[in-house]
Design brief:
CATH topology of the largest domain: Rossmann fold
Number of helices: 24
Radius of gyration: 27 Å
Distance between the termini: 15 Å
Number of strands: 19
CATH superfamily of the largest domain: Glycogen Phosphorylase B
CATH class of the largest domain: Alpha Beta
CATH architecture of the largest domain: 3-Layer(aba) Sandwich
Strand order of the largest sheet: 3-4-5-2-1-8-9-10-11
Structural class: alpha/beta
Shape: elongated
Helix content: 40-55%
Largest sheet: 9 strands, mixed
Length: 612
């Protein structure tokens, strides 16, 4: 096999240096290992738009690359060179080819045709690879094939200038989105070894959204799925592009055993290597005291948000509650939001009957949607609590409390200070008959999450032990409410729940465990099937059984798990959370990155044999 140290790697993804999805996390966390291994022979290529500004430190390119940029600019392809700040400062080129896509070109298709270049690219995909995109009208298909054309032209010029040796360079492309760049190089630079990695198939995700058990069907299928299924679901262009990239690449990889099973059925090719996703486990280690301080600060902020939501309606404690959450794209069934809510409803009913104390479960549902902004009543209550908190936190009677609950603190006060606080409390706003489930105003009616909560009996009434808070926007420092980033918020939680029905890998439970949250996932996810072989009872990472079971059975199991954690002593709960963190050593890039090295070696070896 070729030696990795002698190899150059060019990695292509629209998410390189551009935070829009889960592949960004894969690339960012893996970059330091590839950068260390390949040095200046490692180059990332991403999409250029306003989302790159926070991630990339753009700078003047080396003279040889500057010449290529000038040539491409004349063709309507704009490129910028820089260093990826969050990707170990690896070199990166971001490409925008939208202008090139709208250029008018002439080509022969039986007769002379005159059309936009983006339509000419569709013609090339059909002519060379049988990709039928005649009826493909989605904006993202056009956007991505045009971007891939720009990337392909960039790569073509880089190889023509001998900046990278075609004999020792591996072109790594991620997902169907970068598939057309791989296919362009297959036409124009066929001697370059390529690796195509699919993280989730277009057709598989579409079928799962329609209720199909994709993994179950794939496990028993005798032959690949018919292309007719893609036409029936109106994803024929993307599906055929993805299948062509999988078929034409030198080495094909997937990110989990579940995807490996899926692609054989959906794309018609078995994966050569499984390149399991990882994290920077060693880099995530921090002083336990520092982690505790960060978590405690975020926990206080969460408690204050909760009090802002509920204070006008009834009194309750916040500091001793179990905090649980689910997060992810708003794919109601795929991501298991329905199962989570159903399980919470069952847990609430059980605890209302059996619980003899006032301890609560605060369940957050974090799914970005379309919002006008935070509810004015909650913002005003939140700001008023800030002012009251400034007074209360300096009082010796309340010193050292993890969270100063305004209502319960009044019993410890007397005299003028109590009168002042009571007068300030008259400013709290009550907005409706009961606390809202959603803390932002939505731009639409009949939200699936809110409707599911009501159906499950989760209405935030005073007697409910389980209270639900729907946070329908990305958690970030300028979200208008808590103004904390996602990782700070989840560090304050106890249990992260991710019962996905379709999840090729699934970083959310990994991220949860990495900040010492208990993580619950399902056996329908790549991570779930990977970790269940290593997990033991009490390790802080649970895998809910969903394969071959009804939704009701799975939600029963989830409700039971949540009740176990609710009834744990604080000491046992903290022990389980620390165990979850230790389990993440099994997804350390330090070991898993070798799978990518194996893929690169295999690609060069196979390409070398083609030339003999």
């Amino acid at each position: 096999m070729a030696k990795v140290k002698q190899t150059a790697v060019i990695e292509v993804s629209s998410e390189a240096g551009r935070k829009i999805g889960g592949i960004y996390t894969v690339l960012r966390s893996k970059a330091k290992y590839l950068h260390k291994e390949f040095g200046n022979k490692y180059l990332l290529i991403g999409m250029l738009d306003e989302k790159c500004g926070e991630d990339i430190a753009f700078e003047s390119p080396p003279s040889e690359i500057a010449k290529i940029f000038s040539k491409l600019e004349a063709e309507g392809i704009n490129c910028k060179y820089g260093k990826w700040k969050y990707g170990d400062n690896a070199q990166i080129i971001s490409v925008d080819a939208r202008q090139a896509g709208e250029k008018t070109v002439e080509y022969v298709n039986g007769a002379l045709q005159r059309d936009t270049q983006k339509n000419y690219l569709k013609f090339l995909l059909w002519k060379n690879f049988g990709v039928d995109s005649l009826m493909e009208k989605s904006w993202d298909f056009d956007e991505n094939i045009v971007w891939c054309f720009g990337v392909g032209r960039l790569l073509e010029e880089i190889f023509l200038a001998n900046l990278y040796d075609t004999k020792s360079t591996v072109l790594q492309c991620h997902e169907w989105i970068a598939g057309a760049a791989l296919l362009y190089c297959k036409i124009r630079v066929p001697e370059v070894a390529s690796v195509f990695t699919t993280h989730a198939t277009v057709l598989g995700r579409t079928l799962a959204s329609a209720g199909v058990d994709v993994y179950g069907v794939a496990s028993s299928a005798k032959e690949p799925i018919s292309t007719n299924a893609a036409y029936a679901n109106r994803v024929e262009g993307k599906h055929q592009l993805e299948a062509a990239a999988a078929r034409e690449c030198t080495v094909f990889t997937t990110v989990s055993e579940t995807v490996a099973q899926e692609v054989k059925y959906i794309l018609g090719r078995a994966a050569d290597i499984v390149t399991v996703n990882g994290i920077e486990y060693e880099a995530k280690k921090m002083d336990s005291q520092e982690m505790r301080v960060l978590s405690q600060h975020a926990r206080r902020e969460l408690c204050q948000l909760l009090e802002a939501c509920f204070i006008s309606y009834y009194e309750q404690r916040y500091d001793d509650a179990l905090f649980t959450y689910i997060s992810g794209r708003y794919e109601f069934t795929n991501k298991g939001f329905d199962l989570y809510i159903e399980a919470l409803g069952k847990l609430n009913a059980k605890l209302r009957k059996s619980s003899k104390n006032a301890r609560r479960v605060f369940a957050f549902v974090c799914a970005p949607s379309s919002v006008r902004g935070p509810k004015i009543s909650i913002i005003k209550n939140y700001l008023l609590l800030d002012k009251i908190g400034d007074i209360l936190e300096v009082l010796p009677e309340l010193h050292g409390k993890p969270y100063i609950n305004m209502q319960s603190s009044l019993s410890l006060l007397s005299g003028e200070i109590r009168a002042d606080i009571e007068n300030m409390a008259k400013g709290f706003i009550k907005d409706g008959d009961r606390p809202h489930i959603n803390c932002y105003d939505l731009t639409y009616a009949n939200d699936a999450i809110i409707n599911a909560c009501v159906k499950a009996g989760l209405t935030n009434s005073k007697d409910d032990v389980v209270k639900v808070i729907f946070y329908p926007t990305y958690m970030k420092p300028n979200d208008g409410l808590m103004n904390l980033n996602y990782y700070d918020v989840i560090s304050a939680m106890d249990v992260g729940v991710f019962p996905s029905r379709y999840e090729p890998f699934g970083y959310t439970p990994v991220e949860a465990a990495s900040v010492e949250d208990i993580a619950i996932t399902s056996d329908m996810t790549g991570f779930g099937r990977f970790i269940m072989k290593k997990a033991e009872k009490g390790c802080g990472v649970d895998v809910i059984r969903m394969a071959g079971r009804s939704a009701s059975q799975s939600s029963d199991e989830l409700a039971d798990r949540l009740e176990e954690y609710y009834r744990m002593t604080p000491e046992k709960l903290e022990s389980a959370k620390r165990s979850a963190y230790r389990m993440m050593k099994h997804v350390d890039w330090g070991a898993l990155v070798r799978n990518y090295y194996s893929a690169y070696e295999l690609a060069l070896e196979k390409k070398g044999k083609e030339k003999i």
